[in-house]
Specification:
With 264 residues, this protein is of the alpha/beta class. 22% of the residues lie in helices and 27% in strands. It has helices at 34-44, 58-66, 106-112, 136-144, 206-216, 235-246; strands spanning 2-7, 28-29, 32-33, 49-54, 76-79, 82-85, 94-99, 122-126, 130-132, 150-155, 162-166, 172-177, 185-193, 220-224, 229-231. Strands 7-4-1-8-13-10-14 form a 7-stranded mixed β-sheet, with helices on both faces. Strand 5 (76-79) and strand 6 (82-85) form a beta hairpin. The protein is globular and about 80 Å long. The termini are close together.
Length: 264
């Protein structure tokens, strides 16, 4: 199944200054950028055909793969000055690089890569900046068995704030952590059918327009997940993931702890 990755946003909260033009998916977590971790996750389950929706900082992503160094994350033997790899990361990957505009919203980026999804009944999509250990085969199977046009992973709110309930006089009745409320938010992992394109207008959004319209028609499936899920919207969040990686706490790196799953 093909995987569409949205990796063309500015990522302003991740930037270190005006001269920093590195897109958010290229922020480092350990020795590799975020986008590599996301792609490695999908490849673990046998999904190795990627379509990258490029925009801001596209050159960084292109150069990373054009000059990819397998020895950084694989064991090897150095013999007569030549590296003999004992394993590989991306040797079996197919990556399509598509410039989808600097200012394009997510829905428009998806529209612009539609020609590369021709003939695909279902496909996967991801923001390329969220790490999770969600059981992808189960998410795909539930969607495949449903009569819906799209599936969206949803997670509990990540905010550490508390909501306060009070009466008109200002007396507080209860204080509840946002994370404990019966609310769910978009987790950024999607399984989609071609039907989604029917509901995304020019310069539209995948969630607000595409998924929103499908929801109105009862054709959007949620996949609730309470396991590991970490976004990287800020420098602090990226630093926390990098720290966890360096200390061997990498729950998203399923390829390090589970045998690769076969897919039909």
């Amino acid at each position: 199944m093909k995987v569409v990755l949205f990796c063309g946003g500015y990522g302003m909260r991740m930037r270190n200054g005006a001269a920093d033009d590195v897109p958010k998916p290229m922020a480092m977590v350990g020795p590799r950028p975020l986008i590599w971790h996301v792609m490695r996750y999908y490849a673990h389950f046998g999904h190795t055909e990627f379509i990258l929706c490029l925009g801001y900082g596209a050159a960084h992503i292109k150069n990373f793969f054009l000059n990819y160094q397998e020895t950084i994350s694989n064991d090897f033997i150095l013999r007569n000055g030549q590296a003999e790899l004992l394993s590989t990361d991306i040797a079996d990957w197919t990556i399509t690089f598509v410039q989808t505009g600097i200012e394009s919203p997510i829905g428009e980026r998806l529209r612009r890569v539609r020609p590369y999804l021709e003939g695909e009944e279902m496909f996967l999509a991801n923001y390329a900046d969220v790490l999770s250990d969600v059981p992808l085969p189960d998410m795909i199977e539930r969607f495949s068995n449903s009569d819906t046009g799209a599936s969206m992973m949803v997670v509990p709110p990540q905010s550490s704030f508390h909501c306060v309930e009070m009466d008109e006089g200002g007396k507080v009745g209860s204080i509840t952590a946002v994370s404990e409320m019966p609310l769910w938010e978009n987790g950024g992992y999607f399984v989609l059918r071609q039907e989604v394109f029917d509901h995304i207008p020019e310069n539209g959004d995948l969630v607000a327009d595409g998924c929103g319209e499908l929801a109105k028609r009862g054709r959007l499936l949620a996949y609730p997940y309470r396991g590991f899920w970490k976004p990287t919207d800020t420098v602090k969040e990226r630093a926390a993931l990098d720290y966890a990686y360096s200390h061997g706490e990498r729950p998203w790196a399923l390829w390090e702890k589970q045998p690769a799953a076969s897919i039909a």
